[in-house]
Amino acid sequence: MTVQVAGQVQPVPFTVQAIVTSSDLQFDQTEVDFGSCSVYHLVRSSVRLTNMSLLPQDFGFVAVPEFIEVQPNDGFGTLLPQETLEIDLIFGPKKAKEYNFQLCCKSGINRDFLLSCQGVGVRPPLVLSHSLVQFRPTAVGDKSCAIIYLTNQHTDCNQSKEPTTQLTKDVMKVDGPRLFCFCLPKDSEISISPSAGRLLPGERCLVQVMFRPRLLDHEIKEEALRQIHCAKLISEKEQEINRPTEQE
């Protein structure tokens, strides 16, 4: 560098120091496979996003498809230098088909980092009319009943209005009747009838769900011991309160 002073050009030496850093954001994997997922459920997969820079970087997942949810903070945030954040990708297919797509993570300096994803949406042949059963308040010794329906919706994969590929056809393949079985926890207060059976294509079955609350022997003993312990504490407290009066 030179500086002109009073008509004379004089060199001015100086030193420039700088640290050159990357501006990359890096995923710990290049492709995410959600596998097969029912159109009535969600599948979650996690990826790790790392800031390779020595400076903080803003990021955000843009143009996210409607069948994908990105968390936390809906896919937006700031990564500190060299920081790694776990990102949850939630896949909820709406149709029975193959999904191949790319998620775009855009950095604060307008750079795009792509993540390839794939999954298969499956429409299960057996569908319940309700996914949640809520019983009314029920006393011990009484019972409450709820009715749900189990339907074999699949009749023929070739009759589906939704476009399918060979992979989805293999997953959805129907071979005659479908068997079903309800598995309840041990000592459950819930009973289901029928608990097992089979449904022909297009057939619907009424299922009765019964709730009979009861007290188990160990629960009765625990409550009795608790009551005895509380009564003992109250008695001891009353004795402490009355003791000064007796001395007077």
TrEMBL record:
InterPro entries: Ig-CFAP74_4th, Ig-like_fold. It comes from the Eukaryota. Residues 27-121 form the CFAP74 fourth Ig-like domain. It holds the Pfam family Ig-CFAP74_4th. This is CFAP74 fourth Ig-like domain-containing protein. It comes from Xenoophorus captivus.
